[in-house]
Amino acid sequence: MRSHYPLVFFNACRPAGEIDWFGESLGWAPQFLQAGAGAFIGTLWAVRSESALEFADAFYDSLIAEELSLGEASLAARQAISGQHGDPSWLTYAVYGSPATYSPHHRAS
């Protein structure tokens, strides 16, 4: 992975049950980052399938089609699902990586 520094998007509806995967040294985020991932996105608790799909769609649309940075794309995705009938899924997404990172398709101005 180190030669490409990929983005790992772990969009599981039930990521960890009672285990804190993201806070532990053996969790998914630290393991992928240590293996060479450039960034990691995952959920801290269970999310609704609908919300997970909508977050992913909004995130990738913002990152690739709109060419926003990692931080801007994650904010846009959070905003896209934040008002859904009291569903707090928009709060669960954790982003590990530089918020200024751009997609591979980003064109310098």
Report what the structure shows:
The protein is 34% helix and 12% strand. By secondary structure, the chain is an alpha+beta fold. A 3-stranded mixed beta sheet has the order 1-2-3, with helices on both faces. Strand 1, helix 1 and strand 2 form a beta-alpha-beta unit. The mean pLDDT is 80.
The overall average pLDDT, rounded, is 80
Uncertain runs? none
How are the strands of the biggest sheet laid out side by side?
Answer: 1-2-3
Bin the strand percentage.
5-15%
Number of helices: 3
Tell me the layout of helices and strands.
Elements: E1 7-10, H1 28-35, E2 39-43, H2 49-65, H3 70-81, E3 93-96
Parallel strand pairs: 1-2
Antiparallel strand pairs: 2-3
Helix pairs in contact: 2-3
Q: Quick summary of this structure?
A:
The protein has 109 residues and is an alpha+beta fold. Helices cover 34% and strands 12% of the residues. The model has no long low-confidence stretch (mean pLDDT 80).
Keywords:
109 residues, three-stranded mixed sheet, alpha+beta
